[in-house]
Amino acid sequence: MDKKFIEIVVLKKLFDKNINLTKFLHKKYHNISEEQIIETIYDVQTGSYIKWAKKNPQIQRNYCKEIVEIIDSMKEKSFANYLDAGVGELTTLCDITSKLKKKVSSIYVCDLSWSRLFAGLKFSKKYKNIKNKIKPFCSDMKCLPLPDSSIDLVTTHHSIEPNFMNVDLVVKELFRVAKKKILFFEPCYEFNSVAGKKRMNSHRFVKDLEPYITKNGGSLIKKIKIQNPFNPLNATACYVIELKNKRKSRRINFTFPGKNYSLIKRNNFYLSNHFGVSFPILKDIPILRKENVILSSIIC
User: What 3-state class would DSSP assign to 180?
Assistant: First the structure.
């Protein structure tokens, strides 16, 4: 499916008027992919989550405090690495990881939107105890540039939510890179109010994660209702998941998306000798998406 070139200046005006951008894009651009809709809308919204967090510090703190308690209650004493997939503007990630009692050595963060990552990294600089641990990369959650079984703890925060058409592929890929433990903080239809369920249906949010967890080799240990969600019309549950089959852990490094072939950093690119391609690095953020690859075998 060809990527559409969209007039962002038009969308920003519509966003300021609270127009439903998803419906607008579907109507104006026929056959536009779900992935491009998600990327485009989040790019247009860049900065809005940081503004919201600053305007609503108590709501932000209450939600993150619950998450910290869940992670600190896990039996693992520390995590060599941690992945927040679909991290957005890092507001939730920073509040959580800066307060964890458990030691986390490396914090990998990814998002489909480069703009949101860039804004989030600027925001994260005030968190001095974690800012040097953060390793950002721009990628598609269906095709992560990480090796199999390389991440100690994988988390999401409402990032599976909009992937209605691709939820199975997203869950499968997150399980692929996880060693054992996964925490999904996602909307829960079961815990929602009548108005909340209507909203989930209207936005086509993912409603039932359990079948996808089981299908892809996960065991749902428990489902915890979050008492302080960001939005009372978007009830959040913590899905505590363990992978059923123990797999050999791999050393963490960037790879060709969805594969185990390592990438080599050279100047402002990551190179793949195996495929003879390069991925650009923009403002210290690697863009590790197949859509942005450059065929360049002569330098690989």
Answer: strand
What's the chain's Rg over C-alpha atoms? 19
Residues 198-247: tens digit of each pLDDT: 898 887 888 889 999 999 999 999 999 999 999 999 999 999 999 987 66
Kindly report the pTM of this predicted structure: 0.92
93-141 tens-digit pLDDT = 999 999 999 999 999 999 999 999 999 999 999 999 998 999 999 999 9
With contact defined as beta carbons under 8 Å apart, do 9 and 44 qualify?
A: no
Q: How does the average pLDDT of the chain come out, rounded? A: 92
Distant-in-sequence, close-in-space partners of 5: CB < 8 Å, separation ≥ 6: none
The closest alpha carbon to 253, from 265, 243, 269, belongs to 265
CB within 8 A of 218, min separation 6: which ones? 171, 175, 182, 241, 242, 243, 244
Q: Domains plus CATH for the chain? A: 8-51 (no CATH), 57-243 (3.40.50.150), 264-299 (no CATH)
Cα gap 167→141, rounded to integer Å: 10
Residues in the chain: 300
CA–CA separation, 75 and 80 (whole Å): 14
